[in-house]
Every structure is written in C-alpha cells, then in structure tokens.
Amino acid sequence: MKNIKNIIIASIVLLFTFTSCESDENIFEYVGTDATKITGTLTTVQTIVNQGASIAFDYTLPQSFSKDAILQIDGLYGDANVVTTTITILSGETSGSGTIDLTGDDVGFGGQIFKVTMGGIRLVEFQDVEDEDGNLVNLPIPTEGNNFELTSNTIEVLVHQDFEEGKANISLGWDDGSDLDIRLRDASGNVVGSAETGANPESFTLDDTLADGDYTLGVIYYGIVDDALNYTFKVRTSDGQTQIVTGSLSGYVESTSAEINVFKFTKSGVNYTITEL
Q: Do 72 and 31 contact (CB within 8 A), yes or no?
C-alpha cells in the first residue's frame, strides 16, 4: 500500500517558501510562466452523501516526480472554494487515494452539488523547522524550479441533509410565508408519519421496514399558498439503493386551511415508485 499522509493545509500556507520569494507565501500561489502543464484524474464511487460527511477519492497523475510533492485538493459549492486538503505524494508515485471533509454549512432544501478538483501540486523537501515556541516541526519546503501547473476533471457529489441508510426521508419546502405541515397516510387513511413543527422544510424519516403498499403524502396549509411547494423524497434503503425524487407543485389557493394530497408512493421491498397527484 502506498505511504500517503494527509497534511493539514494550515501548516503549509503561512510560511517557509522559496529562497527567492518573500516569507509568507502560499506554496501553491506561485506557478510561473515556465511551468509544465499536466492533467490529473479524480474518481469516486460516491454519488450522494450526508451533510458533514467525507468524500473518498482516488487520484492519478500523468507522471512521477524526482522529489516528494504536495497535492492540493479543493472542494467547492458552486464556484466558491469552501474546503481544501493536501496529500503528500512520495517520489516515484503516480496514484493513490484520499478523503476530503464536507463543511457543516447548511446545504439548503433539496441538497447541493459539492465539487472536488485538483487545485495544484508543488515539489517539496521536508525539513525540520523551528516554530514560534522553539519546537522542531517537519514541514514541506517548496523547491525551486520544476514548476507544474496542475488541472484535473471535477467530480460531483450530491450533498443532502438527514439522509440515513435504511431510511426513507420525506421533506417538503415552500417559497412563501405560509405554515405547512405534512402527513403520510396508508391506503386505509391511517396516519403513519407526520411533521408539524413549523419548520421550513418540514421532514420526517421512516424505516424501510415500512409495510409494502400505497401511501399518500398530504400537505396541510394554514393561509394562502401563492408560490410553489417544492418536495424532495429521499430513500437510502438497507440494500444500499439510493433514490431521490424532487418536484414542485402550485395552485393551492382555494382555502385558508385544508389537507391536499400532493404525491403518492408505492413501496415494494426496497423499491419505491413516486407519483405526483
């Protein structure tokens, strides 16, 4: 197994750079016009994860290096870089694996796409450097020359809230100031799940041991609903299958208090079929 160690980015950002550069430069900040352009590859088997989880990935570089190197991996929501991690690549290596942690920021209703890409690479020599307390710390010091400008593909993972394995999670959000509650009824009309907390979105979770059959999700609203009702039906069943269905409904403006059926699902084992009503 390759000897790969993760380095906390904070330990290499403030510091110790080229002898020809000033002393507090980020080692990935300077590339130079003479840099060799190379392209790496990232892969992951994960497509959907919980907020706050980690994404595991494999990386491949197009060449090995004569010195150890620091590989920077960036995680982004949209175009905003929200988290960075680094990996030490030993001389001669071209591939390996790593993880990047998601931030705890609210991903919002319906989830959000998290993107992972290679942010840069620098050849380094590890040296013992004295910190401000007089302790020796082994840190990567960038070497002069042999600059590389690294790019890669981008892997995308959907990040969701409250998405438990072996559970069916039902959420309903909306765009105006109305108060909505949700109730799940079985084919006989019995309430088997509900959310009436005043939150937006409202959501609740069911075990996937729920009996097979037909179920209907009803919206109870208090006040006029002028804007769309946005729903997300999320299932991660015990056999590892994942399903997410999102939709938007509108037109519920006839009453100030009513229960309206918005969609139904049919459960058969670990399979779920969703239908808007």
A: no
Contact 215, 195 (CB under 8 A): no
Q: What CA–CA distance (Å, rounded) separates 274 from 267?
A: 9
Do 65 and 50 touch, CB atoms closer than 8 A?
no
What's the pTM? Answer: 0.61
- The upper half-sphere exposure of residue 122, i.e. CA atoms within 13 Å in the direction of its Cβ, equals 23
Numbers of helices and strands, H then E, in the chain: 1, 20
Q: Which domain does 205 fall in, by range?
A: 167-276
Contacts of 154 (CB under 8 A, 6+ apart): 42, 115, 116, 117
Q: How many domains does the chain have?
A: 2
The CA-based angle 224-229-232, given to 5 degrees, is 155
| 90 burial type by CB count under 10 A (0-12 exposed, 13-18 middle, 19+ buried) | middle
**pLDDT digit string (tens) for 211-257?**
899 998 887 776 655 666 776 666 666 565 666 777 776 655 445 55
| Tens digits of residue pLDDT in 10-24 | 333 333 333 223 333
d(CA 93, CA 2) in angstroms, rounded, equals 8
Check if the beta carbon of residue 95 is closer than 8 Å to that of residue 109.
no
Pair (62, 11) in one structural domain? yes
* 25 and 148 belong to one structural domain: yes
Residue 144 is assigned to a structural domain of this protein: yes
Q: Do 179 and 235 have their domain in common?
A: yes
